[in-house]
Design brief:
It is a single chain. The chain is an alpha+beta fold and 499 residues long. Helices cover 35% and strands 23% of the residues. The protein contains 16 helices and 22 strands. The strands form six sheets. The chain has an eight-stranded antiparallel β-sheet, sandwiched between helices. Strands 3-2-1-4-5 form a five-stranded parallel β-sheet. A three-stranded antiparallel β-sheet has the order 7-6-8, with helices on one face.
């Protein structure tokens, strides 16, 4: 195992990786931009180095500066988290060239699976069902004929894409030209590559993904599925495991195809194979994410397997300690992505200083967070600030625990998506598991701000003010007593308090 790890990320995922390293007894190195100087991941690491100014292109996307910090600090490996450079094959190769291990798949695997058209061709050759669509990148002149051949509605997708960037749905031929232009522009901005292809838009589909682990010795296992159909504009909001749409037979068939996809892509490390499941229970390969997913804690809660620890073990050349028959899913887990956005104002980013944070706790509750009272939410980075998870013996128990946790979770000073999740947990469609990837746009309406909300905030503000007054008084009292002799000084062994 490595002795020192550099975490090339920020926020809650950086804290998550740092905690896993600490549990393994590893030394840690953090990198940060100037606006993140006082962030939680900087405080948590053993060492921290500034790598530039706030814009990601001047800091967290500067591979050269990150690798230089690894050299100076003596870090043996770099964990990229997710986002930023996590799926950048050039960065992975640069790490290897510098003699630093990259905690993730090989550069070749990232490049192969990151090219969506190549991945589709590979899956077809391996016998993995894919969504009907084009196999090669398209020019605009070819797109019209291909769309007619596939049949409307179609999806325009970026070949280098992910996270819904560069994706447009087209329902009729008249809209194709404008959608192509918008998709190419967004893809170029997000990925530096405007290559696109077409897929059939599957009506009533559910988004199901399988967590996979693969070592360097040919061993591959999956850890069951995650349901990711609650989305807004192709961005996931809620994830859960297992899925109500999957029975034991379908789970085995989809899991076997996920393992086949991993082998076809010559993939190693932790990854995710994503599928679309239609109303007839037919499933289609969508893409593979060659990194740790945002929603990885959902799988950790139901399997008991620490995925970050497994990433580090696999990067160090260890063998998988599990066989497929060893994997057992227990209970049900649900995750809500807490973002600094105002759901009552078209999800506009909410920036500013967080004045107070009250995190829920108790049986079956987990919070992965990168914020605290006094933290400044910046416009420069992703709005995800925390992840709230609930586990229960059954889905019903997990939902009830999530409702309780959401009612306890208070982040003051900014707007968050907590009210959205409170309403979703009370939705009959969600409770009954009757939803698909279009649910948020077609079947869910966010109600107005609830009565009594301002009273709740006022009560919390009053409680916070009273707490601060008591804390100030206590600290003043301690300061006054510091000059007095303490009876504890004479209670220890002789010489214990000598300087």
């Amino acid at each position: 195992m490595f002795q020192k790890i550099l975490v090339a990320n920020r926020g809650e995922i950086a804290v998550r990786v740092l905690r896993a390293c600490r549990e393994l007894g590893l030394q840690t190195v953090a990198v940060y931009s100037d606006v993140d100087r006082h962030s939680l991941h900087v405080r948590y690491a053993d060492e921290a180095y500034c790598i530039g100014t706030a814009p990601p292109r001047d800091s967290y996307l500067r591979a050269d500066r990150i690798i230089d910090v690894a050299r100076r600090s003596g870090a043996e490996a770099i964990h990229p988290g997710y986002g930023f450079l996590a799926e950048n094959a050039e960065f992975a190769q640069a790490c290897i060239d510098a003699g630093v291990a990259f905690v993730g798949p090989t550069p070749g695997a990232i490049q192969r699976m990151g090219d969506k058209t190549w991945a589709r061709q590979t899956m077809i050759a391996a016998g993995v069902p894919v969504v009907p669509g084009t196999r090669e990148p398209l020019t605009d002149s070819q797109a019209s004929a291909e769309a007619e051949h596939i049949g409307y509605p179609v999806l325009i997708k970026a070949a280098a894409g992910g996270g819904g960037k560069g994706m447009r749905r087209v329902d009729q031929p008249a809209d194709l030209s404008n959608a192509l232009r918008a998709a190419r522009s967004e893809a170029q901005t997000a990925f530096g590559d405007d290559t696109i292809y077409l897929e059939k838009a599957i009506e009533g589909a559910r988004h199901i993904e399988f967590q996979v682990l693969a070592d360097n010795y040919g061993h591959v296992v999956h850890l069951g599925e995650r349901e990711c159909s609650i989305q807004r504009r192709h961005q996931k909001l809620i994830e859960e495991s297992p899925s109500r749409a999957i029975d034991a037979d379908l789970r085995q068939r989809m899991g076997d195809m996920a393992v086949r996809a991993v082998r076809a892509g010559e993939y190693t490390s932790v990854g995710t194979v994503e599928f679309l499941l239609d109303r007839d229970k037919s499933f289609y390969f969508l893409e593979m994410n060659t990194r740790l997913q945002v929603e990885h804690p959902v799988t950790e809660l139901v399997t008991g397997i620490d995925l970050v620890r497994e990433q580090l073990r696999l990067a160090a050349g260890r063998r998988l300690p599990y066989r497929q028959e060893d994997i057992e899913v227990k209970g049900w887990a649900i995750e809500c992505r807490i973002c600094a956005e105002d759901p009552y104002n078209n999800f506009m980013p909410s920036i500013g200083r967080i004045t107070d944070v009250y995190e829920p706790s108790g049986q079956g509750i987990r919070v992965d967070s990168g914020v605290f009272a006094g933290f400044e939410v910046s416009i420069y980075y992703d709005p995800l600030i925390a992840k709230l998870l609930a586990w229960g013996e059954t889905r019903g128990e997990a939902i009830l625990r999530m409702k309780r946790a959401l009612s306890e979770y208070k982040i003051l000073g900014i707007k968050t998506t907590i009210p959205l999740f409170q309403q979703l947990m009370n939705s009959f469609s969600f409770i009954g598991g009757q939803f698909d990837i279009d649910f948020m746009e077609s079947d869910f309406a966010l109600r107005g701000e609830g009565q009594g909300q301002h009273a709740d905030v006022a009560a919390l503000a009053a409680a916070a003010y009273a707490y601060r007054r008591r804390r100030t008084a206590l600290m003043q009292g301690l300061a006054q007593r510091r000059t007095q002799s303490s009876p504890w000084r004479s209670a220890g062994r002789p010489g214990r308090w000598t300087r």
